[in-house]
Amino acid sequence: MLTCPKPRQNPTSRARPRRRRLRYPHHRAPHPRGSSRRCAPAPPMAADWSWGRRAWEKWAAKHVGPSGKPGQAALLLNYDPSGPSRLLPVIAEQERTQLSALDMQPFLDFVKRGNLQTEFFSVGPNQYLVTSIHENWFCARCINSTKSGGEGVIVMQIGAYLLVSMYDGSLASASQAMVAADQFAIQFNRRSH
Q1: Domain 49-192 class?
Q2: What is the Cα–Cα distance from 15 to 25, expressed in whole angstroms?
Q3: Predicted TM-score of the model (pTM)
Q4: pLDDT, tens digit (0-9, with 9 covering 90-100), for 7-61
Q5: Residue 181 region by backbone torsions, left for phi larger than 0, else alpha for psi between -120 and 50, else beta
Q6: Within 13 A of 76's CA, how many CA atoms are on the CB side?
Q7: Gap between the terminal Cα atoms of the chain
Q8: CB 76 within 8 Å of CB 56
Q9: What is the bridge-based pairing of β-strands 151-158 and 73-78?
Q10: What is the pLDDT of residues 42-56, one digit of tens each?
Q11: What are the backbone angles phi and psi of residue 167, rounded to the nearest 5°?
Q12: Domain ranges, ordered by start, for the chain
């Protein structure tokens, strides 16, 4: 749990005791010395991420890897547009990629802007164009792929996370990658709700 630093108090002024009343049980009382600052809540990931890591490792071992598996690489990104992003790392988990938070920041900015149909986005060295948009996920194809079958990505929002599942190939590979991403979402949501 994060703690708030104590505010400086002017030695010449006297602090009068105030009556404090909470309107709702989830509101915190003001700082004891009269400051209106509130403590920041603990990051949601810090509370119990061990189950999330186990779910990720189990899913990634089965669905992400070299040829024969639906996904070639995958990332789980912390994404909560309403919360303070400075409390959590950008990349919660990744499999078969070596991307950094700096590599993923333009992608997160793209998602926050919401112009999915009118802009390109990048994940690592590849540039993508969105081909299909659904309620909580979208598909995109790589426009600078060097592979003969092409490459694609499925991005799915799962609570305060974005699952980015990259695959090689065309329609059949995209379907298999979507099923794999959906299985992770079901498994992850079952535990978090």
Answers
A1: alpha beta
A2: 26
A3: 0.73
A4: 455 555 555 555 544 444 444 444 444 444 443 333 444 445 788 889 999 999 9
A5: alpha
A6: 22
A7: 22
A8: yes
A9: unpaired
A10: 344 444 578 888 999
A11: -140, 160
A12: 49-192
